[in-house]
Amino acid sequence: MKKQLWNKGFQPDELIENFTVGRDRELDLRLARYDVQGSMAHIRMLREIGLLTQEELDTLLPALEEIAAEIERGEFRIEDGVEDVHSQVEFMLTDRLGDLGKKIHSGRSRNDQVLVDLKLFFRDELKRIAYAVELLFNRLLELSERHKDVLMPGYTHLQVAMPSSFGLWFGAYAESLVDDLQMVKAAYCIADQNPLGSAAGYGSSFPLDREMTTRLLGFADLHYNVVAAQMSRGKTERALAAAVAAVASTLGHLAMDVCMWMCGNFGFVSFPDELTTGSSIMPHKKNPDVFEIMRGKCNRLQALPNELALLTANLPLGYNRDLQLMKDIVFPATDELVDCLMTADFMLGQIRVKEGITDDVKYDYMFTVEDVNRLVLEGVPFRDAYRRIGEMVQRGEYKPTREVKHTHLGSIGNPANDRIRTKMENLLSGFNWEGYPAPGE
Ligand code: ARG
User: Fold this and answer.
1) Does any ligand 1 atom lie closer than 6 A to the CB of residue 323?
2) Which residue, of 89, 106, 123, is where some domain finishes?
């Protein structure tokens, strides 16, 4: 039996129904708890403006709480024949309370309902991402400190260039994550605005108290202009996608480095056997599949902003059903990113770095700039010193002193990890949120 909120006495064609509902019955489950929260705030406000009596509110709220509890217990389903989470909740209320259930939708449309659900959901998803970013950040900074003095070659053009260190390598990704978290914060701020009351996208003739629902739902502000509120569908997703892509770009890059450093020709890092994978034919193989999958996933995640841009490009102003499809793109992406971040943290917890890499003669030329600089300190003009060492290299007579003394801020000897940590702490304390969602939420 089909149940549509918009039933006007005819049954829509089955094919049309399936095509338009798409994956909503499954994806909307993630919005269920937020949908109920939104409804609670909405009906409290309806009571305030006289569209519900206190008695009605006192009947509706416990019924919604009961549905919320069913959601938390994992018992909530969107029945076959019901389009989406918004319809399911309203039908459940009507089944349980009769005509009173039909009153809650005054001054509201599914357009602002899904918007408010999404904004509440995205806030939590962005918190989850921030939590996982912070976790990996701490891991990287700890590794940077621990391996501060272990030298490794630095490359440009993938040719041996200058001395670098594991301290710099790990710390570089930690600091990069701080920039990415700025994007997460920006996306969070955009999501943290109440769209409720915009209804179908043009407001309502009821005197809705939008500041009240903003307060009740804990939004930092509201999207005042009802048309802007509707426009924020898509815009919010694109901001979130930019943040996801930024983190993914950093993590994908790190995954590539690990794959390369694990290659036998480098052999800079290794992992315990049980964290590697094997080959069905070559008995010696210990492969970096984890970091390859991570690299691939992170590369795919970077397509997210493009996918959303193409999906929403040039849509006419106001609600269009195309917007529904963003859920298919965005929902799996945040899970994927958090999974990659947590896996990276787990793997790096067991990484082993090789000491003494740069003692190998194949890295001798990595020290040429150190020796040029030494001559400069002895009073030789830089260009002459450069030429002198260059000619020694040409004649095959260059012997490195292997002494590396970098002291400036952010260099091998002074990676400024405390400053990087302060940057992160300042950023995190600027978020308008009360902690992270509980694990598993
Ligand atoms: N499933 C819809 C979506 O995600 C809910 C809003 C439906 N609104 C409508 N006018 N058909 O966009």
Assistant:
1) yes
2) 106
Which pLDDT score, from 0 to 100, does residue 7 have?
76
Q: Does residue 84's CB lie within 6 angstroms of at least one atom of ligand 1?
A: yes
Distance from C-alpha of 153 to C-alpha of 366, rounded to nearest angstrom: 7
Measured by CA distance, the residue closest to atom 4 of ligand 1 is 324
Q: Per-residue pLDDT averaged across 22-30, rounded?
A: 96
Q: Domain for residue 402, yes or no?
A: no
Number of the ligand 1 atom closest to the C-alpha atom of 323: 12
Give pLDDT, residue 261: 96
- Over pLDDT 90: what percentage of the chain? 88
CATH number at residue 53: 1.10.275.10
Q: How many CA atoms lie within 13 A of 58 on its CB side?
A: 3
pTM: 0.94
Domain end, chosen from 81, 106, 131, is at 106
Q: Is the CB of 244 under 6 A from ligand 1?
A: no
Determine how β-strand 151-156 pairs with β-strand 159-165. Answer: antiparallel
Q: Whose CA is nearest to atom 3 of ligand 1?
A: 324
Instruction: Indicate whether 400 belongs to any domain.
Output: no
120 part of a folded domain = yes
Q: How far is the CA of 114 from the centre of ligand 1 (A)?
A: 7
Residues 48 and 90 in one domain: yes
123 Cα: distance to centroid of ligand 1 (angstroms): 20
Question: pLDDT by residue (tens digit) across 72-82?
Answer: 999 999 998 89
Q: Is the CB of 28 under 6 A from ligand 1?
A: no
* Average of per-residue pLDDT across 358-383: 95
- Domain span at 45: 14-106
Residue that is written with structure tokens 């989406």 in the block: 84
Give the mean model confidence (pLDDT) for residues 243-266. 97
Residue-wise pLDDT for 338-350, tens only, equals 999 999 999 999 9
